[in-house]
Amino acid sequence: xxxxxxxxxxxxxxxxxxxxxxxxxxxxxxxxxxxxxxxxxxxxxxxxxxxxxxxxxxxxxxxxxxxxxxxxxxxxxxxxxxxxxxxxxxxxxxxxxxxxxxxxxxxxxxxxxxxxxxxxxxxxxxxxxxxxxxxxxxxxxxxxxxxxxxxxxxxxxxxxxxxxxxxxxxxxxxxxxxxxxxxxxxxxxxxxxxxxxxxxxxxxxxxxxxxxxxxxxxxxxxxxxxxxxxxxxxxxxxxxxxxxxxxxxxxxxxxxxxxxxxxxxxxxxxxxxxxxxxxxxxxxxxxxxxxxxxxxxxxxxxxxxxxxxxxxxxxxxxxxxxxxxxxxxxxxxxxxxxxxxxxxxxxxxxxxxxxxxxxxxxxxxxxxxxxxxxxxxxxxxxxxxxxxxxxxxxxxxxxxxxxxxxxxxxxxxxxxxxxxxxxxxxxxxxxxxxxxxxxxxxxxxxxxxxxxxxxxxxxxxxxxxxxxxxxxxxxxxxxxxxxxxxxxxxxxxxxxxxxxxxxxxxxxxxxxxxxxxxxxxxxxxxxxxxxxxxxxxxxxxxxxxxxxxxxxxxxxxxxxxxxxxxxxxxxxxxxxxxxxxxxxxxxxxxxxxxxxxxxxxxxxxxxxxxxxxxxxxxxxxxxxxxxxxxxxxxxxxxxxxxxxxxxxxxxxxxx
Length: 655
Hints:
alpha+beta, ten-stranded antiparallel sheet, about 25% strand, disordered C terminus
């Protein structure tokens, strides 16, 4: 384009209003009011500030209107208190996806006082008096609530301390010598020799004796080839596999067998909702009922305040029905909180009147809600079972014990007595139960444990309190053995998480099928590792594959090995004597390892065995000289467990 053409184009643009000037300018040609391409910082900043002020004002108004809530679902929608009625679907209707029904299990929570006539010697005389005992029969808790919050972490060393025998210096006097007859008050018994001239009356007549002899003799002779008498096989022990009489259910525990459970995703899922239905057997206060069913003290106060204008009294009558919905506060929660509580009061004609419902809001308050969908109340107490909610055996025993007002020391002893035979980190199953017998509280509020029976699946383990002649008190099973084992099966703090079992597997590093000679218990680096039993260290150095390794020689041909340690405990070496529960090293990932864990092995006479299922000898066995006395003690305690409860009760035990 030449100069003439450029001039012509410039003239045309100028004629149409365009001019050659800067695109934007801060210089104003007409005072402070900007025009065209002129800018004013004052006007620009004013516009921005106006927009920000509007946003802040609207945000503050919304925040105040929602009263600080950060989630905007109503309490009714969150708790499913109000659901639209839907028409019943036919079995072939595919318009909606069905959901699997949750299993429901019957629950039991009985705390009873039983009385028995006890014989004791006072100043050389035999005295008989009535003595009360407390008996607990309950199913293990199937959902963790605030009752078991704050319990100590599972620690094998603490369990060792809890299972130590009660020394003779404890000055504990517990008598279970049940007298054969019932007495009123206190009765003194005096034994005297019978005179030689006394002829006791006949208990049976000559005629009845003759008939008995004749029947026995006639039954001995037979004409058929089949015998008239046969001996039944000896009953299997609890550790023998077999069928439960009258059913096709397999029961028992197989020793030296590794059982790999089916992988269940629900068991690894977050906690879900669970609903409990219960009926009070005795009158009780509302606060007491709430405390026994997982309401924290603060939550109980909020519920009571919400019901204050609805209930005439916070004292609940016998046969009052409660329906409680539990759920987690977040996906990371380890305990369930009560979402909703509904009360149904009994009428004189046997029917029930719906009284009120309180529900948890997003702000943590309990407010009155509408009645939930109608369901038929079961005859007995029941609870929905959510697989994800099932607690470990350890936490379930804590939950059940605190629900029945057991002190923490008693709960720790119960856990310690069973920790050698039971995997406390394993989840319970619906229907697992516990029975306890203890003395009533003394003047200082102390009670003494007499008997515990724990049923997990089809296996029942019983332990009886017994004192030897030296005054030492311990708990023994019917075979006269304590619950304490010669070796611990998971010798590290917290027990670890089982990552790999004993047996053939695909090696995680070499990707070949090889025998895994022990079990892998994962835990964070630096977790203390304990000696599984008393013994002498025979290997204490690095070994290819195992990394830092320790081997301990125990008595009777038993050996244990510990691999992949990050470091050893100070002051130990080959030839050092160690005791059960003593720290020998710390968890690491040395050697051929994919992460921090303990590789634990047990050998018996040089042969590798599964540490989790091998039958281990008991640490303490009752001497044979106490066999008759211990059998009498068991019979007396069994008699107390079979007695009917006394007419006097100490508390409403069903809540």
